[in-house]
Specification:
By secondary structure, this protein is α+β, with helices and mostly antiparallel strands. It folds into two domains: about 80 residues, no CATH class; about 140 residues, Aminopeptidase. Helix content is about 40%, strand content about 20%. The protein has seven helices and nine strands; from the N terminus they run E-E-H-H-H-E-H-E-E-E-H-H-E-H-E-E. The strands form two sheets. It has a seven-stranded mixed sheet. A two-stranded antiparallel ribbon has the order 1-2. Strand 1 and strand 2 form a beta hairpin. Helix 1 packs antiparallel against helix 2. The longest helix is centred in the first third of the chain and has 28 residues. The chain is elongated, with a radius of gyration of 32 Å. The N terminus is likely disordered.
Length: about 260
């Protein structure tokens, strides 16, 4: 019976005068699970385990995301790592399943990113500042709104016009889903203050407010030529820049083109 791999065979005398020699000139020999070659095998296995764990963690984290775009990116990354892991281990059913998930994620990412600045994908609906549905949307998201604008309070439902000036309110819709709300107050001379600009968590990686400010023409229809962000809203500088506001001595301003 031949010696098993990795087993040292000591020399011994045979009755025919021949001697048994070791398997190699070294005092020991190495198998695929230890020594010189085993180290590479352990490294490969460790790398695969890291890939598998990272992929699993990314998929789990993706399921905790409220933002639809972030969910898709994380889920795609996790699925691709899972494909690599399962292919390396020849676990074909799970490799195929994760490949399909990756294709689905890519489809939705292309669709979402393609519609990101597409005015046909979003609609702007003007409502009264005391509108019941607007009040419902604000009420549902008020805690989240206060993380950005701590002192914001919705206009009273019973009063469509306030003593400090007229207000206009707009809802941003993506199909049947309300993804944002904007409330402004007219302060005269063609200027209005943006009191609220809110995007729901699912669409916070997008900028639906741009359709209210620049593409719907709703402010120009009301004679507004200049928007000024509320002081608390003015802390969201990256967002304001993305929807066309500019910093003028600490005040965030956006010009509105005439209708």
């Amino acid at each position: 019976m031949p010696p098993s791999p990795g087993r040292f065979v000591a020399p011994s005398n045979r009755s025919d005068g021949r001697s048994t020699t070791p398997l190699s000139d070294h005092s020991t020999c190495y198998s695929g699970t230890g020594g010189e070659y085993g180290h590479d095998g352990r490294v490969t296995r460790t790398v695969l385990e890291i890939i598998g764990w990272v992929g699993s963690i990314l998929v789990i984290v993706s399921l905790t995301q409220a933002r639809v775009l972030r969910f898709r990116w994380l889920n795609l990354a996790g699925a691709l790592l899972a494909v690599l892991y399962n292919v390396a281990l020849a676990i074909w059913p799970f490799a195929a399943m994760n490949a399909v998930i990756a294709v689905i994620d890519i489809y939705w990412l292309r669709k979402l990113l393609g519609e990101r600045h597409d005015p046909s994908a979003y609609s702007v609906v003007e409502v009264g500042p005391g509108d019941a549905y607007l009040g419902h949307v604000i009420g549902v998201h008020l805690e989240d709104i206060h993380t950005f604008q701590p002192s914001y309070a919705a206009p009273p439902a019973s009063s469509p016009a306030e003593s400090d000036g007229r207000r206009w309110a707009f809802l941003v819709q993506r199909a049947e889903e309300t993804v944002g709300a904007v409330v402004v107050r007219d302060v005269g001379l063609g200027t209005a203050v943006v009191e609220l600009d809110y995007v729901t968590p699912r669409f916070r990686d997008f900028t639906p407010g741009e359709f209210v400010y620049g593409r719907s023409g709703v402010f120009a229809d009301h004679g507004v030529r200049r928007l000024v962000a509320d002081k608390e809203l003015a802390t969201q500088t990256a967002y304001l820049r993305s929807v066309g506001f500019r910093d003028e001595a600490g005040a965030w301003i956006r010009d509105i083109a005439a209708a």
